alpha-amylase (Actinoplanes lutulentus), 790 residues
Amino acid sequence: MGRSRLVRAGSAIAAGLLAAAALSAPASAAGGGTIQGTFTSAADAPIANAGVVAWSADQEWLTSTVTDAAGRYRLDEVTAGGVRLQFDDQGRVQWAPGARHSEAAALHSLAEGGTLTVDERQLATGTLQGRFAEASGAGAQAEVTVVGNDPGVSSRQSVSTDAAGAWSVEALPGSYKVSFRWGSSEQWAVRQTSDTDAKAVTVTAGRTTSLDEQKLATGTAGGRITDAAGAPLTGAYVSLSRDDMPVGSAFTADDGSYSFGEVLPGTDYTVSFSVNGGARQYVPGATVRERAQRFTIVAGRLTTIDDRLLEVATMSGRLAGTDGSSPLAGYHVMVELAGSGSPTYTTTGDDGRWRLSGVYPGDYRVAFISPDYQREQYAYGQGSPAGADLITVAPGASVTVDDTWVPGATLVVKAVDAATGAPVKNICVWVFAPRDGRGCSDSSQVTVENQPAGEFPVSVSPAGGSNYLPEYHRRVRLVPGKTTTVTVPLTQGGTVAITTIARATGAAVRDTCFLLKQIGDGSLGDSYGACSDAAGKSITQAIAAGTYELFAIAPTGYGHQWVGSRSGTGDQRAAARIVVKAGRTVTAPKVLLDPPGTITGVVSDATGKPLPGAEVAYSAETGGVTSWSTETDAQGRYRINKLGPYGWPLLFSSAGHPREWSGHQGNRFQAKLVPVVAGGNTTYNFRTAIPARLRGTVTVPSAPRATWRIHAKNAVTGDEMASFDSSSADDGGGYSMPLIGGQRVRISWSFYGDSVPWTEGWHDNATDFGSATRVNIPAYGSRRADLVLR
């Protein structure tokens, strides 16, 4: 079973509880043991109400609790195996024994049915204190938040200033940044508007560090909201946002007035309001955020922002049963303004009728959802939003939307062997329709009832341990009141048997997990499985026949590696080729784990200025920091741990700069390999190159207002080297992406809209990576590519 890795542990017990809901249960959760102990301060005093979280060897949330008044804790039914413990004392987070981040924590071995005692002593703290003052020198009121700044460390503590503006926090040793929030303003020490530019301060155990801050100059913003007739609108909730992120709020008074108080100067502020939790209106008189006015706040001035509530309408209707007359009670009604993403809900009464008042003018879709939430239908009689009518609502109008609940469709799926036609038993089926339908059977046939009408993707998945491969997104058309039967051929894949030992001792190594990848896919992903047992043995899930390379995610004390024929490597090209055959289990080369080393350095821009917040990775992942990457601190410093002692390519990414591999390459296979030393550290500093650019226009003929995204992928490795989406395009659909020059790329794209389903493809009219047009990127300057997405 694949496992989802947690990249960074939360700074409070709530993070562990959220992770419990978000992550799937561990594969080995059939039984467990008990972990108990006490948590005390550096002075040996008990710490009460501290969060204690147990994490597995591969950083999977297991369970959590809080300490009692005596500092005692107990965790029951903890999954047996390697366990790391996290302790959270009001935002002061450490890992047993006395470590600031998870990779430095001890991996405790918990036996099935056993009891493990782990007492933890909090690291000695230091004091971070200061004073927040007005420009005049008088004390200022604010909420002060102290945020951990060391890579891999999660810590967040908040206090309020006293009447004199003084504040103080007891913090664990490390690097921190400090923010001050009051009214609708937030600034970061020293006198900065973002955490990126904030000063990092160091807290030392047993010492006091002072950080005084003076309030930045501010303006104010406020105004008056009236109803459609011009009378004061009382009790409306008014929200102030900047760059579409909320920064302040207020309620209107009896005269309709409101004030956000002090606001930092700047552009791109928007204001919206709602009444009694209803639909949101954007100033001036807009129903969607894209049409909101952008305001500029000026220091020392009041920006007046007035608005009038749009003349609202009423929507109502009746939902009848499949006979066309009997009322359907208790059905949920969802009314959504097209393009808003903010639906409003009500429920049908005993007579099947429903009503919504206070509806803004615009074009709407109306959906009806069954009381058990198993099926939804769009007016009129449609199974998905794509077929729904757009219902125009005029100011002051009363619009009626009656509908009849259509009979549910039935899908019967029969699974057969793709080669022989023989039935394949033990399958599950998913229907990717609104409210997803699903069903499982120990036979070769699954029936899924009460589905909406329309064409939907269907996936068929065999039981765990089977050599058959899942069949994804087979499109099936479902008809109301009818049964649709489809036969889905399943192809056999193969599995890989793996043995893992320590190179130095020959001893078996447990909790090593694996990924099978192919040349042309440098992304490791963020889930994996096939973890080794106590004997160092594991077998992968079935995978399609083909040639693969094996990546080993090592447990504590060892370094990650691509598995070679006789040793590990950091270069995917040098990894052993494993030929997977249908219906068979093949044996991988023995995995020989070595001690880990680290790579550290400083990332700077082309002028030599350090780049905070840059990502450094040894995988071609995108979308933020992952398990295979880290982020530079305020001084541009980075640290990557747990790499095997081999040469590794590193990928550097930062906003406004090109993604590039070490040695300033777009092709990973031409990257400079950074050598890692077992038990040691290698320094590799990196200065970003001046980029070339890929620019042009994007046109979607079938949906001119569609939301789209394009990706530039290296033509050799398939690594994503740049991306761009429609929210950043100009009015003509223009785009411009920085790229490291001297490479070839292939461009993939996707789009969706109110009236069109998710669609994806490759430039130019290609169906896959291999057939896509290669676009040459010059060493310097720009290349134009106008894209038509069909």
